[in-house]
Amino acid sequence: MVESISSHDSSSVQDEYQATPPSFGEDTGVENNLGQENTQQDEVEVLTGCGGLACCNPNNGAYRFIALVFMCFLSFGSYFCYDTPGALQDHIKSDMNVNTLQFASLYSLYSWPNVILCFVGGFLIDRIFGIRLGAIIFSSIVTLGQFVYALGGIINQFWMMQVGRFIFGIGGESLAVAQNTYTVSWFKGKELNTVFGLLLSMARVGSTVNFLVMVPLYDWVGTFAQGHKQLGISLMIAGATCLFSLGCALLLGILDKRRTKILRLNTAETGEKVHLSDVLSFPLTFWLISVICVSYYVAIFPFIGLAKVFFMRKFELNDKTSNAVSSIVYIISAIASPILGFVVDRTGRNIFWVFLAVLVSLGCHALLAFTFLNPFVAMSILGLAYSLLASALWPMVSLVIPDHQLGTAYGMMQSIQNLGLALISMLAGLIVDVKGYLVLEMFYMVWLCIALVSTVGIWLSDSTKGGILNLSVSQRCRREEDTECLLES
């Protein structure tokens, strides 16, 4: 139960209260009057009954922790189902009678549309849907896409599987934008870097669980179904994770609506509307952050995709060991990301941590390119650097972009990332075919140098404008005159 106790500057209202004290159930009309004069009042929310419990009180950390659990699982189904083609590659090719190029379309049909669609999704979240409805809509699209994809397998229609992956892609990246926007809304100024690290960890967990589970699931379905039906039913069961994430979106929406009502967050809104032209007014620091996002991730995702053969040829590792070395980056990031995010939360200085992460990653690629040191060493360190960068980089957007434009900003950033990764991945494959893996490693090092220069550019741009990106936590608190923040730091 929520009760509002208000103090008003008007003496006439105070006299009226003193003369005839109203009961809590009585409508005195004063509440409406106060609502029209928000600039002249202070509102205090008193939670009674079950609403006073820590887990039901939005002012309490326990309430935010419950929301964080749902926030982490918001994209779990998307991350899990994204890699189902990779986990069942041989089975898809044989059961559906398709070649490698047709199989690869299951990934490209997800990636290429998101060069545009995740920016559109972010804009729709800011301008039309809002975070709550946006998360539910995009989670529903992900779920629909997965089941269409699975149905294509059941009825032996590969084109339907392709359509399903396209639908899945429409929702997948936009859902990630909603998740990022939710995170900033709930945790900005608190544990934001830690939470971004935790979300990264959950993404890696989703992909890892998929590779561990899908083949045994496929084999189990094989006890009562064969061929394309075995494949389709396996994918349909995997879609249960999308339903689970959709449930998390609904519950998170309820928690967020309650939080907004009790904390009266709507009264703080400026009513500003987002326009597509707002993108042109984004500061230089945002575009440099986007450059880092592309140039750094190029040396992670496409590299890991091509690394297995590289390790087998240069370091003479067997097939199983090469896979283990390639996956160590994701395994370490699943553990280290929230820990390193907590370090960034405690210290601030995001630019310094990004610079350090890029520099260490550059050193790791140099070790792989020019030495014969056991690749486990370089890849393990690369996993730590990747975790540190992701924990420090993504929250920086919330420090340079107004809250009402964050969905658009994160959507634009992910669109740039998708375009860059799609183009550079193809170029990386061409380099391997023509020049070999040593030149490919040097290619990745060039991109990391671009990320390093961009980081310096962010520091120069931010410092000359009196920005806060490289301030310590206590310096940011003093600048924003946040007493509570100073006490926590």
Shape: globular
Content-based structural category: mainly alpha
Q: Please give the share of residues in helix.
A: over 70%
Specify Rg, calculated over alpha carbons.
25 Å
Any idea what the CATH architecture of the largest domain is?
Up-down Bundle
Instruction: Tell how many strands the DSSP assignment holds.
Output: 2
Strand portion: under 5%
InterPro entries: MFS, MFS_dom, MFS_trans_sf, MFSD1
Subcellular location: Lysosome membrane
Membrane topology: Multi-pass membrane protein
GO molecular function, one term: transmembrane transporter activity
What does this structure look like?
- The chain is mainly α.
- It has 3 domains: 2-47, no CATH class; 60-269, Growth Hormone, Chain: A (Up-down Bundle), CATH 1.20.1250.20; 274-489, Growth Hormone, Chain: A (Up-down Bundle), CATH 1.20.1250.20.
- It has 22 helices and 2 strands.
- It has a two-stranded antiparallel sheet with strand order 1-2.
- Helix 3 (61-73) runs antiparallel to helix 9, helix 4 packs across helix 10 (192-221) and helix 8 (114-154) packs across helix 9.
- The relative contact order is 0.11.
- Mean pLDDT is 80; it is low at 1-46 and 48-52.
